[in-house]
Each structure stands twice: as structure tokens, then as C-alpha cells.
Amino acid sequence: MLLFQNGVLEYVYPAFFKALSHPDHVGVALSICMAGYVLGGSSYFQALVFGGAWAGLIYYCCHDIYQGYMARRLSTDMVDIQANYVDNPDNGFWVAEAEVNGQAKVVGIMAVKGKRQEEDAEQERHDEWNGRIMGGALEVDHNAGDGSYGELLHMVVSFSCCCRNLGSQFTQKALDFCKERAYTRLILDISSPQTAAISLYQKSGFVQTTSHSNTHAIRWVSKLAGINVMRMEKII
Q1: Cα dihedral 66, 72, 76, 80 sign
Q2: Of 191, 188, 90, 204, nearest in space to 148 by CA
Q3: What is the pLDDT of residues 133-143, one digit of tens each?
Q4: Are strands 92-100 and 103-115 parallel, antiparallel or unpaired?
């Protein structure tokens, strides 16, 4: 699961730099630095310390959101991939391997979970990020014409393979899987700092339908991190 952990936490720094450069946060940083300068008796060092403390708080908020998401996934559906995905015909889990330095290594993973009905989608929409107990999706008939759909989860691609179109191949595999099971659409939730992944999904025909800033973290942590979670979907 090291690839999954690294794949989630690699977005902490992009989220941190994006949050730190927000105009509101820049204004607060300048004010805090000025306060440190004044309270320290015209001390530039004190100004830097105060500014560093503000930057550290922003980083903590961003890290807490991604760390919390990763911890929940590793303690829920990812704790038993065999039972939750491999042994369930309505779900799928894929692993990509490549030769790295003469050895076969896992360079990508992806999961698709079959779901049914809009109320299940709405119930689960925030679960990936805000820590609610995951709602159990109903078993879906492979030939169902009842609005059953798939949810794309946990796509992680090693940085060394980002230029090999592995993300595009995974996405197409997920769409083909949904077609085989007569799912009407494929949905996913993605955080705003994941700009490369968002671009990939848009090129594959996904469109954004909703967005929210609710995460598992307390409100002020979510607000300081400034991370939006977007729902995207593609009709099949």
C-alpha cells in the first residue's frame, strides 16, 4: 500500500502552495509578519518566525486532510481488497506493473465500485473526504437498466509512469468495465489540487457536476486548507 499512501500524500505540497498563495492568506501572512516585527522591537527575525508559524499552520491543515483521507481508506475498503473488490463481481480492482531497474514493480492501482440509486450517490458523495461511515451500496444486477453506476476510486499512478499514458489506460479500463455491467455512468470525486488528473478526466469526457469544501477535518482546518472536492462524471 506504499504506492497508495505516497500517491495521496503527494498532493499535500500542491495544496499547501495553492493555499499559501491565496490573496486572503497572503494578506494575513503580511499582517502576522508585521506584528512579529513590531512585537520583536523591529526584529526581522521575529517577523520571519511569525510568518513561518502561519505557513506551518497552513501546511498542517493541508496535510491533515490528505492524511485523514488516506487513513480512513486504509481502515475501510482498502483493508481487505480481496473481499471488497476482487471477490465482488460488481466491483473491480486493477494493478499495473512495470519493469523498474530490472525488477517488476507496482506502478499503478485503480478500483471501481458498483452502486445503485441517487440516494446512495448523494449519501456517499462526501464520505470519501469527511469521514462519515460509508454507506453500503446495494448489490447490482450486471444487466440492470435501473440507473446503476460505477464509482472510480483510488487511481494512483507512479510518478515514473506519468508519461506512459497509464492514467488514460486506467480510465478507459474503468469505462469498459462499467459498460460490461450496463452501468449508466461513471463518477468520481477529486480534490482541486489534483490538476493533472482533472485535465486527464476532462480529456476523457468527464464533466464537473458539483463541488464542496466539506472534509473530515473541523471547519477552520478545511477553510484554511482551501481544498475543494469536485464530483465529475461521464455518461456511458
Answers
A1: positive
A2: 90
A3: 333 333 444 44
A4: antiparallel
**CA 12 to centroid of chain Cα atoms:** 11
Burial class (CB in 10 A: 0-12, 13-18, 19+), 163: exposed
**pLDDT for 100-150, tens place per residue?**
777 888 899 999 999 976 545 455 544 555 543 333 333 444 444 567 999
> Long-range contacts: 120-128, Cβ < 8 Å, 24+?
121/149, 121/187, 124/151, 125/189, 125/210, 125/212, 125/231, 126/212, 126/214, 126/229, 128/69, 128/73, 128/153, 128/189, 128/229
**DSSP string for residues in 30-66:** HHHHHHHHHHTTS-HHHHHHHHHHHHHHHHHHHHHHH
- Cα dihedral value 28, 32, 33, 39, nearest 10: 160
The mean pLDDT value for 207-222 works out to: 89
What order of strands is seen across the sheet that includes strand 229-235?
Answer: 92-100, 103-115, 149-157, 185-191, 229-235, 207-212
Are 108 and 161 a contacting pair, CB within 8 Å? Answer: yes
Question: Would the pTM of this model clear 0.85, i.e. be above it?
Answer: no
Closest CA to 154 of 63, 76, 216, 234: 76
CA 29, distance to chain mean position in Å, is 28
Q: Tens digit of pLDDT for each residue in 40-59?
A: 899 999 999 999 999 999 99
Contact of 116 with 148, CB cutoff 8 Å: yes
One-letter amino acid identity for 79? V
